[in-house]
Design brief:
Blueprint (H helix, E strand, L loop, with lengths): L2 E4 L6 E4 L40 E5 L2 E8 L14 E3 L3 E3 L5 E6 L13 H18 L7 E8 L11 E7 L4 H17 L3 H12 L3 E5 L2 E4 L10 E5 L11 H22 L4 E6 L17 H4 L3 E6 L6 H6 L2 E3 L3 H9 L9
Parallel strand pairs: 2-15
Antiparallel strand pairs: 1-2, 3-4, 4-7, 5-6, 7-9, 8-9, 8-13, 10-11, 11-12, 12-14, 13-14
Helix pairs in contact: 1-4
Length: 345
């Protein structure tokens, strides 16, 4: 029977409607490339470095580079000499499009997705993520640095070559701010991290757990918006993704490979987004000495993985509800049962 669900970390309701689809095969689809470029013409492939803006970071490996970071050729935000905050007609706010927009080219291999990478290569990708978030956070104008990955045209990718993106913004986005405020209020009331409590409850229940591995918890959220939506938590409390040790980075690399590998083995090469939810830039703000000062205690970084298997249509836009035809308990069981192939080398 359909039911309405709401989780404790957001004020969002979800309709779980299992009658609309019953088997993983109902969701099988292949992510389509936005541009069917070949290695000879792909700007992200080795030998075509002249086709991209000058690189910001290069991680070397045997025979050449392993991971590169470049400015986005068509940035959503860019450098300005000032923020340009102002009121427009008294009630509207405006500021310059201040920020940064970068592309992490994850591998020189045009056809090797993150699910198919070796542990070492995936760890280098995480190294690049952390290096760029740390560097961008040195700019006091950048209040939030968002890391995300679009895989497949349906998820917003414009090129097939494996890559992720980073956008730094001069404001903390509303969805992030809401999550931070919920976490702070919970900690003020109970002196516990709400995300740690959610994770502990999921571990004790087990019905939505996909895997406990390498210091990480992979689970399907209670109020999943999409079929096979997943979240990866570090099991030890940590608010800041950039503080990961080398051992923790290797653990996350293995966890990402295994989790994306499970999705691929069960559903095929489906389109998906993943989003890193980490701390905003804690740089002091004039007139706001307590700005997010409780973050080390009440916040918990995590990675959300969102397969794009259903469409957001009029009902969702009109109500803010999502309709999910795959109960997260069923999704977790299907994924737990996947037999993973040996890791790539």
């Amino acid at each position: 029977m359909p039911e309405l669900r709401r989780g404790p970390t957001s004020n969002r309701w979800v309709i779980v409607a299992p009658e609309r689809a019953r088997r993983p095969s109902d969701f099988e689809r292949k992510a389509s490339s936005a541009v069917e470029e070949k290695p000879g013409s792909c700007p992200f492939c080795p030998g075509n470095e002249h086709m991209t803006p000058p690189e910001i970071l290069r991680i070397h490996g045997p025979g050449g580079w392993c991971t590169r970071v470049i400015p986005n050729k068509y940035p959503a935000l860019q450098d300005y000499a000032e923020l340009g905050r102002e009121a427009v007609q008294g009630v509207f706010d405006r500021m310059h499009g201040v920020g940064a927009h970068e592309v992490i080219i994850e591998t020189p291999d045009h056809d090797r997705s993150l699910a198919d990478m070796s542990e070492e290569q995936a760890k280098l990708v995480i190294d690049a993520y952390i290096a760029r978030i740390q560097d961008l956070s040195n700019n006091p104008w950048f209040r939030y640095v968002l890391l995300f990955k679009n895989h497949g045209r349906e998820a917003g990718a414009s090129l097939a070559h494996p890559h992720s993106q980073i956008i730094a913004t001069p404001i903390v986005p509303q969805e992030v701010r809401s999550s931070l405020q919920t976490a702070r209020a919970y900690y003020k009331s109970k002196e516990r991290c709400i995300f740690c409590d959610v994770m502990l409850g999921e571990i004790r229940s087990g019905e939505r757990i996909v895997e406990l591995v390498d210091g990480y918890v992979v689970s399907a959220p209670y109020a999943s918006r999409f079929p096979f939506e997943l979240v990866i938590y570090p099991r030890a409390h940590s608010h800041d993704f950039t503080t990961l040790s080398a051992e923790q980075r290797y653990g996350l690399a293995r966890t990402l490979i295994r989790t994306l590998g499970r999705l691929k083995a069960l559903l095929g090469d489906v389109p998906y987004n993943f989003v890193l939810k980490t701390t905003p830039n804690p740089v002091p703000r004039p007139g706001q000495p307590e700005y997010w000062s409780t973050l080390p205690y009440d916040y918990h970084w995590r990675i959300a993985i969102l397969p794009r298997l259903t469409q957001v249509a009029g009902f969702e836009w009109g109500t803010g509800f999502y309709i999910n035809p795959m109960p997260p308990e069923s999704a977790a069981k299907y994924l737990r049962d996947v037999q993973l192939a040996p890791p790539a080398t």
